[in-house]
Fold this sequence. Notes:
The protein is an all-beta fold. The chain has strands at 30-36, 55-56, 62-66, 80-84, 90-95, 113-114, 120-124, 140-144, 150-155, 173-174, 180-183, 194-198, 204-209, 227-228, 234-238, 248-252, 258-263, 281-282, 288-292, 313-317, 323-328, 346-347, 353-357, 376-380, 386-391, 409-410, 416-420, 436-441. The protein has one domain: Neuraminidase (6 Propeller). The chain is 0% helix and 29% strand.
Amino acid sequence: MLQEIPLSGRVAALVLLVSGLLLGTARAQTETVLFTFCEQEGICAEGAGPFAGVVLDQKGNLYGTTFHGGTGCNGSGCGVVFKLTPKGKETVLHTFCTQDNCADGEYPSAGPTLDQKGNLYGTTDQGGATSCNYGSGCGVVFKITPEGKETVLYSFCAQTNCPDGATPIAGLIFDQKGNLYGTTESGGSYGGGVVFKLTPRGKETVLYSFCAQANCTDGAGSVAGLIFDQKRNLYGTTEAGGARGAGVVFKLTPKGKETVLYSFCAQVNCTDGAQPAAGLVFDKNGNLYGTTVRGGPSNYGNCYPGGEDNCGVVFRLTRNGKETVLYSFCAQNNCTDGASPYAGVVFDQEGNLYGTTYNGGTSSGCESYGPYGCGVVFKLTPKGKETVLHTFCAQSNCTDGANPYAGLVFDQKGNLYGTTELGGSSSCDSPFGCGVVFKLTP
């Protein structure tokens, strides 16, 4: 498995630093691997390669998905939904592609969302009851009961030419009435993906089709989830489109009117960031925070083999669309501060931000994964001071995990939980490991 995963087409595989601020030094943190995927050679029934993070229930159980593994797809593995107890005991709730032609879905990139009854809702990139040009299907929205019974609520590309959307890579959110909202990377009336609403009974409404404007200045290819404000407006990102083709932050009213709040690469050499692949979070004042995978100061280094791309940023965006880059990655030699944040950030109660980067970190022990590092967990103060809390592949053979694609979640005690796509056991089909679920204790 290649270390870099492209921003688009995963179906097949799938501050400028503020002057005067000093970089934080790493504090002592304790990482615990709660579960290692595919520890038995050649058998990955428990899942492999989690792209998504986890969610917690009130009892401290963790729920998530893996992109590979499971016994479906004629044994090759098309992903699973899993439950993990606080002590690390895993239960596979559903294995994808157990129905003919993968009508139940296959290859989930996003994690599940819990309702109050303990049901899980999520998406898969492929599979579904309808065939299309994207493989066996264009993806589904599914529901799984606590007992593991799966129901497909919607199969995308149910309409000719996929105006209803195709390839949902992001997760879902609820409104107060139990309706689900999400995005698709492709499909729609103009081919740039959609924002959709789905009733509890599976009736879909397309709220917006991207690339409705010339040159897709309204955005294209959303691979991130959505958030609501208090007035039920939706906010999200697209990785492409915009005035400069490097992605946008958008706002969508309940009636489907879209406003582009910011188009990335507005500064020379994209020092303001480029290609946001993650969703957003609000602070108490209504400002938006997020990450971009690429962009940042041009002298900070080359994060991708054979390319000129830089290493991504953490940004803040006011309600009026004024952007501030809080941190640009690879500000340290060899990117020990991290590089390429595919995931978004979360807040603690003091207003500090926490997240992961897919690459970067101390390269020692990570040579088998390439010269780009195995990723970090970072903390960022409101003023942009970064501290690396954990550098992955700190243990021999990366048994502590490597290359976290997903973000983090807090428990009530302030512990952080997440996943890595690679690392863990070396006995799985990937020579780089099949990933772990980890806990980081302050």
